[in-house]
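Collaboration report, partner site 2.

Our partner group contributed sequences for two proteins of shared interest, and the home lab folded both. The records are reproduced in the order in which they were received, starting with the first partner submission.
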Amino acid sequence: MEKHRVYAMPFSRIYPLYIQKVEKKGRTKEEVNEIICWLTGYDEQSLYQQIQQEVDLETFFRQAPQINPNASHIKGVICGYRVEEIEDELMRQIRYLDKLIDELAKGKEMQKILRK
């Protein structure tokens, strides 16, 4: 089976786009980091190491310390797909992150974004 092109994208190229998206809506880089760390289990130091090493998205998620068990509670549509119906685990994790960043940009409360 052919890999999706998005898997080879460097996380370091996508990360600033997340920040730019939320800052336009009055949210912060710190909130983006909190979401990424919540979802992946990285702490801020290991997150920045991944960015500096310019790992691709596949490596970023495969090396994640632990995908949050509550990630399965993330529901909704992103890029025309229902995240809970995406069969490919890696693509679902990528879309989880996209969905959380969208929720942040739309002004949702952090408690709700983090499924607490």
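Second partner submission, folded after the first:
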Amino acid sequence: MQIRQENPGDYKAVFALLEHAFRNEVHSDHKEQFLVEDLRKSAQFIPELSLVAELENKIVGYILLTKIKIKNTENEYTSLALAPVAVHPDYQNQGIGAELIRHAHQKAKELNFDSIILLGHQDYYPKFGYKPAKSIPLDRAPIN
């Protein structure tokens, strides 16, 4: 398997992958493919953090991290949001999603980002270092 930066020639395949991967997901509005299209056009899009997983010249996985601002009454922090991560149903449970997450974390560190937030399955993401936001002071949420 190869993980690489997405390029415009991948957009159609990624759209189809997202549509298929989230089709039967209960906790989804089934519009992730449109979210990605919108995020690619935004100022928050970072091309180096839009990644595909290829197996036998076929895109089987995708992950996107985009820039966000977290503000409270005293401070503003730049962070990243992870959404979405998807693996084609025929290739799930083979570690592809995990490799995409690890690769995205490494790329984010290389680009000097310190944290990533997400909304996701509470039993899946802790193995990658994610914790409930309420349990971490904002200035102490490093990328693992």
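Feedback sent to the partner group on the second submission included the following. Residues 81 and 117 are 5 Å apart (CA to CA). Residues 2-140 form a domain with the Aminopeptidase fold (CATH 3.40.630.30).
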